[in-house]
Amino acid sequence: MASAPSDPSPRGSGVPDAPPVALKILVAGGFGVGKTTLVGAVSEIRPLRTEEMLTEAGRPVDDLTGVEGKSTTTVAMDFGRIDIRAGLAVYLFGTPGQDRFWFVWDELAVGALGAVILADTRRLEDCFPSVDFFERRGIPFVVAVNCFDGTPRHPVEEVRAALDLGPAVPVTLCDARRREDGKELLVTLVEHARDTWAAARPHPAPAEV
Ligand SMILES: Nc1nc2c(ncn2[C@@H]2O[C@H](COP(=O)(O)OP(=O)(O)OP(=O)(O)O)[C@@H](O)[C@H]2O)c(=O)[nH]1
Ligand SMILES: [Mg+2]
Which of 83, 113, 144, 176 could be disulfide-bonded to 34 (CB atoms 3.0-4.6 Å)? Predict the structure, then answer.
C-alpha cells in the first residue's frame, strides 16, 4: 500500500528518517608510505585515484628508499567510501605525500573528523609534517606504522617517544594492504576523535536543586 502523501518518511514508516551523516577522515603521511594502498584496501567503492608517473626529473626529490618498485605518485588525492550502516558513511581522503602538493592539504582538511597518519620506521621523520599539521589545527589523529616486509619492528612506545606524542594519541602497527587492519584503524580513530571532542566540550553547569 502506498504511504499517505503527508507521510514524511520515504519508507512509509511514519517516522521521518534522520538525515544521512558522512564522516570525513583523512589518510596522511610522507611520500610512499602507503596512503593510496590503505584507502584502496578499505574502500567499498572503486577508489578514485589521481596517480601520475614518477619522472626522471623528480628523482632528486622523490626518495624511493624502501619502495623502489613504486612508479606512480598521488598528485591530488585518493577517495574511498565505506557504508557503516544505512545513513552513516565514512568518506576517506588520501592526501598527496610530496611537499610540492602541500597546498591541497588545507582544502582536504576542511570538516575532517580526524586523520590516520601512516609512518614508515625507516624514515619516521617524514611523518613529522603531518603530525604538526593536525596538531596545529586541533584535528584528532592516530599514528599507524605501516610494517613493510623485511623492515625491523619497533615497539609502539618507541615510535610514540620518537614522535614526541602524548599518551592519549593512539599508536598502532598495521599492514596498509590489509582491509581488516584499515577498518580497525578507522574504529580506533573514530573512538579517539569522539573522546577528544567530548573532552573539549565545556562541562554542563550542575543541575539546579
Ligand atoms: N610490502 C609492502 N608494500 C607496501 C605496503 N603499503 C604500500 N606498499 C607498496 O609501497 C608503495 C607505495 O605505496 P602507495 O600506496 O602508493 O604510497 P602513497 O603513500 O600513496 O605514496 P604517495 O602518494 O606517492 O605519497 C607501493 O608500491 C605499494 O604497493 C605494505 O604494507 N607492505
Ligand atoms: Mg598516494
Answer: 176
Evaluate whether 192 touches 149 at the Cβ level (below 8 Å).
Answer: no
Model pTM score: 0.88
DSSP H stretches of helix in the chain:
35-42, 103-109, 128-137, 156-162, 179-200
Query: Using CA atoms, how far apart are residues 130 and 151, in angstroms rounded to an integer?
Result: 22
Residue 200: Cβ-neighbour burial (10 angstroms; 0-12, 13-18, 19+): exposed
DSSP state of 201: S
Contact criterion met (CB below 8 Å) for 85 and 111: no
Kindly list the protein residues whose Cβ atom lies closer than 6 A to any atom of ligand 1. Answer: 31-37, 67, 69-70, 73-74, 96-97, 146, 148-149, 175-177
pLDDT at residue 80, rounded to an integer: 98
Q: By C-alpha distance, which of 42, 26, 34 is closest to 121? A: 34
Return the CATH architecture of domain 21-200: 3-Layer(aba) Sandwich (3.40)
Please give the pLDDT value at position 4: 45
Show me where the domains of the chain are located: 21-200
**177 C-alpha vs ligand 1 centroid, how far in Å?**
9
77, 105 contact by CB (below 8 A): no
Q: How many CA atoms lie within 13 A of 123 on its CB side?
A: 13
